């Protein structure tokens, strides 16, 4: 039978359905071919869990996509409290910041030589009543985070502080009033008071992490305004940039994530050519992953966290809550696995 336009039109939907069901969709870019050495050898995800919020747990990966639990899913430290955020200092030591609750006046900092054991390094109590241009700041310190700036030789610590209480009629005004503050330090023992606002523009931001790529500083943040038809970017992950650590920072670009995502965690791929940006769908529902070859975008979202192995392109253990992801050496990875033991993430 000779093909006709009618026959082709009849068979085309079935052909497309067959191809869709049997085609292998491409894996995320950034991986290193088998047998070649990765630029970024391993990764550590320091995080909380759904059942034990505000405590320290470890999950690790060799490819930045597939993550496995350490320490049989138990706490790494009974002392640490907070939203885990780790930075490596110029002397090779690691520092982690946290606080016991948002209403606590203190930010606690621990230090570690090997990521295995942590000891108290310092306590910082910001004077929130002295922040320039921010009268009425409430005694709230949310999710302190750390960045080391090689150019200036200083640490920057950021956190969010609101200036309005929530009400029964409008609980979201508390979150919309969050502003990102920062303080600088040479050693995370003494700090250059007073704290200051990081951004000039006026809308709610939380969970800000700072990263530098070439000559540009990027602030990756959560837009903390509630999403509406008139603020469609609310509760999404967005990026702003500056030529200087202290700004001014540009207005944030279009959202990288869907609405109701927070706690961005950024890592470079094993071949160091791609960026993997993770974020939590709260409260502890799942994790999303967006991918780009440039922090200016464009970004696309990978498929994962479905717990169907033939569909997932990345996988994290269930019930992980937010924290930070950092690159580590294979030697550090092996030490962590030897010390704590590893559990494969079974889907």
UniProtKB/TrEMBL annotation:
Domain of life, per UniProt, equals Bacteria
Full protein name:
Glycosyl hydrolase family 43
TM helices/strands, residue ranges: none
The residues the entry assigns to the signal sequence are 1-25
Database matches in InterPro entries:
Glyco_hydro_beta-prop_sf
MF terms in GO: hydrolase activity
The alphabetized UniProt keywords are: Hydrolase, Signal
């Amino acid at each position: 039978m000779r093909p006709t336009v009618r026959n082709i039109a009849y068979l085309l939907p079935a052909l497309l359905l067959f191809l869709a069901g049997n085609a292998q969709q491409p894996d995320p870019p950034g991986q290193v071919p088998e047998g070649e050495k990765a630029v970024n050898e391993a990764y550590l995800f320091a995080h909380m869990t759904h059942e034990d919020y505000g405590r320290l747990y470890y999950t690790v990966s060799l490819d930045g996509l597939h993550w496995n639990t350490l320490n049989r899913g138990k706490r790494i430290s009974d002392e640490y409290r907070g939203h885990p955020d780790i930075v490596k200092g110029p002397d090779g030591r690691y520092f982690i910041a946290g606080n016991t609750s948002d209403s606590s006046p203190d930010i606690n900092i621990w230090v570690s030589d090997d990521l295995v054991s942590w000891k108290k390094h310092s306590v910082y109590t910001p004077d929130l009543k002295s922040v320039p241009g921010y009268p009425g700041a409430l005694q709230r310190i949310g999710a302190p985070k750390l960045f080391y700036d090689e150019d200036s030789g200083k640490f920057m610590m950021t956190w969010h502080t609101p200036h309005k209480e929530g009400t029964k009629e409008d609980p979201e005004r508390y979150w919309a009033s969050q502003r990102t503050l920062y303080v600088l330090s040479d050693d995370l023992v003494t700090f250059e008071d007073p704290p200051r606002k990081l951004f000039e523009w006026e809308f709610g931001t939380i969970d800000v992490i700072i990263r530098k790529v070439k000559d540009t500083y990027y602030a990756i943040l959560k837009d903390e305004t509630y999403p509406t038809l008139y603020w469609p970017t609310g509760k999404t992950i967005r990026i702003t940039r500056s030529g200087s650590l202290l700004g001014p920072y540009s207005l944030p670009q279009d959202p990288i994530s869907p609405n109701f995502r927070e706690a961005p965690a950024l890592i470079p791929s094993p071949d160091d050519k791609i960026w993997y940006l993770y974020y939590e769908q709260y409260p502890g529902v799942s994790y999303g992953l967006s991918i780009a070859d440039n922090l200016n975008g464009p970004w696309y979202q990978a498929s994962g966290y479905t717990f169907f192995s033939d569909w997932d392109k990345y996988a994290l253990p269930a019930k992980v809550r937010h924290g930070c992801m950092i690159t580590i050496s294979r030697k550090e990875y092996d030490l962590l696995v030897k010390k704590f033991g590893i559990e494969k993430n079974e889907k």
